[in-house]
Specification:
Blueprint: H1 25-28, E1 34-36, E2 42-44, E3 61-63, H2 72-79, E4 84-87, H3 100-114, E5 119-125, E6 128-129, E7 165-166, E8 169-171, H4 177-194, E9 198-202, H5 215-232, E10 238-242, E11 258-263, H6 271-286, E12 290-296, H7 301-307, H8 313-338, E13 343-348, H9 353-357, E14 376-377, E15 384-389, E16 392-397, E17 402-407
Parallel strand pairs: 3-4, 4-5, 5-9, 9-10, 10-11, 11-12, 12-13
Antiparallel strand pairs: 1-2, 6-8, 7-8, 14-15, 15-16, 16-17
Helix pairs in contact: 4-5, 6-8
């Protein structure tokens, strides 16, 4: 049974590379909000963080569907596995609710009714002008010419004068201070309107590659915008940034409470990439922040080969579901080797509700217990790593991409 199961209620409707010395097991026990980091230092969670536990694999879920809210059974299924979620950018926009903030509000209410301790985040993008909310509907490319007052908020090609787009999505211009003020107020309003516990901010690059000569200005503007949002929201709200642990995001990082490691290509889930992740997870934990270790199976080369180019959606779902079970032990082990207090695991093959959030992986529910020490590298230049937990021994070979978790 999940550590969250005892908190659930019946939902009638959905209206709404550090080798530290071993740590004693009793020192690893949860003492209020105090936890041990793998280097032996203490981690103290902020009061507004989710309740964290090593009882089983701590998971984070992020999902959305355009055609409406989740069923009560779907809410129950996810709530049994986590108390930390984010509602994706276009949730329920093709339903009578019409706008993403209405979809998020309804969903967050349902999850909090099921488990009042749920921490739920509102999604917003800092680079792409998705027109899915009532706040951003005017940024729809179709009809955007009718809103000249917003044209300075988006990027234009210097040579052609045409708006930069990806598909039909416009690009925000973070160098415009008026845009930054609008964006800060808009996201803070979205968090308030939806009853969210904070915001997940995606695409935190500011399109710096479109203006190399102003890269430093872009980075400073992004930092200014995140600082503004953090100050605008109530002090007990979480600010989570996607891939904001890199050097390019150094101006953003200080203002965040949590960072997602989105492994959005095969290089990021390579043996070298995973090794870097573990070092970063330690650094971030020492700063008192949370991490989300997000594995997207859609970027695994073995999965790509199995999917091929000629499979239909039903076949793809079947293949993903099957391979997600087969690969769960390797990816779980890859997370556990570097996991720190308030490190969460996210696993799937996309961001929609039907791309993994409703698939049950029994291995994630096995009793885990706190880590007893930092990980060990079996040989100096090798790619085998081990780590001991109270109820599990973890071994992984990130070169051969195989793992074994022995449950005690």
């Amino acid at each position: 049974m999940s550590q969250f199961s005892k908190k659930r209620f019946i939902l009638p409707s959905l209206c709404a590379l550090s080798l530290a010395s071993p740590l004693a097991a009793d020192e690893q026990a949860n003492k209020g909000d105090h936890y041990q980091i793998s280097d032996g230092s203490s981690y103290v969670a902020k009061d507004f963080y989710p309740t964290f536990s090593w009882e089983v694999t701590p998971q984070y879920f992020m999902f959305g569907q355009m055609n409406g809210l989740l069923t009560s059974d779907q809410v129950e299924s996810i709530s049994a596995k986590t108390n930390f979620i984010c509602i994706e950018k276009a949730h329920a926009v093709k339903s009578p609710l019409k706008y993403a903030e209405a979809g998020a509000k309804g969903e967050i209410a349902a999850f909090k009714q099921t488990n009042p301790d749920t921490k739920a985040l509102f999604y917003f993008n800092s680079a792409h002008a998705y027109p899915f909310t009532s706040y951003t509907k005017k940024f729809s490319l179709k009809g955007f010419d009718k809103h000249p007052e917003l044209h300075s908020f988006v990027l234009k090609d210097k040579e052609t004068g045409k708006f930069h787009t990806r598909g039909n999505v416009l690009f925000f211009d973070v160098l415009n201070p008026d845009f930054r003020s609008w964006w800060i107020n808009t996201v803070a309003t979205g968090v308030k309107d939806t009853g969210a516990d904070g915001a997940f901010i995606d695409q935190m690059h500011g399109f710096s590659w479109l203006r190399h000569d102003r890269r430093t200005e872009v980075q400073e503007a992004m930092g200014d915008m995140m600082a503004g949002l953090k100050n605008k929201m109530p002090s007990d709200k979480i600010l989570l940034g996607n891939n904001a642990h890199t050097k390019a995001a150094s101006t953003i990082y200080p203002h965040l409470d949590a960072i997602m490691f989105e492994h959005y290509n095969d290089k990021l889930i390579s043996k070298e990439g995973l090794l870097r992740d573990w070092a970063e997870m330690l650094r971030i934990a020492k700063d008192g922040k949370m991490t989300i270790f997000r594995i997207g199976l859609e970027y695994d080369l073995q999965v790509k080969a199995a999917i091929g180019e000629n499979t239909n959606k039903t076949q793809q779902h079947e293949i993903y579901t099957k391979l997600s079970q087969e690969m769960a032990e390797f990816y779980l082990a890859s997370y556990l080797i570097g996991a720190q207090p308030y490190s969460y695991f996210q696993y799937g093959w996309g961001w929609r509700l039907d791309t993994g959030s409703l698939v049950d992986h029994p291995i994630f529910h096995k009793p885990l217990g706190a880590p007893l020490a930092a990980y060990k590298r079996v040989s100096k230049d090798g790619w085998e790593f081990t780590r001991e937990f109270e109820r599990a021994s973890v071994w992984v070979d990130t070169d051969k991409r195989t793992a074994k978790i022995t449950w005690k």
